[in-house]
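Worked problem 6 (solution included).
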Amino acid sequence: MDIDDIRSGKLKALAGADLEDENLTHIDLSRVNFCGANLVGADFSHSRLNGTRLDGANLTGCTFIGCDFRANLPGANLMQANLVDADLRGANLKGANLMQASLRNTTLASAFLNGTNFMGVNLEGIDFRTADLRGANLSNANLSGANLSQANLQGAILTEANLEEADLRNANLAGANLNSANLLCAELDGADLSGTSFVNACIIGTTIDQEQVASHANR
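Solution. The predicted structure is:
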């Protein structure tokens, strides 16, 4: 594989390519097809990935620092990936695996994250505004101070998640599992809590009627 051809924009069809540990930094890779490619350990730092196809690609341990990354990644393996300062607004990460990924200052507003695996990930202060997180696995994740306003968390798994001071205003939490979650001082005004489970959850200082939350606590 000639990396110079990729850098020059001559190669756009790279489905199934083996680019393990390649240096792909500072390149406009918009609309390139990497579907099913082996990209383990590749470095995409500060590259442009708008509309890039990464469906089913193996992105384990990849570096995406500062990337404009509004790409299609359903089912992608992003385990241990570095997404610090990346812009993933509106990106499609349905069913992707983000376990042990670094997401400091990452923007995920309006992203499609249905069924995405964030188990145990540090998501402190992350921007998830209006994101689709239906059925996502956020168990044991650190979401303290995260912005989840108007996010769709229907059926999401948030057991033992840290949501201290998180913004969940007008979020859809219908059927979500918040058992043993920490919601200390979280904002929940206007949130849909129908069928939500709060068994052993900390709800001290939340901005909704305490009786409303308590009514779910033993379900």
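Discussion: The two ends are 57 Å apart (CA to CA).
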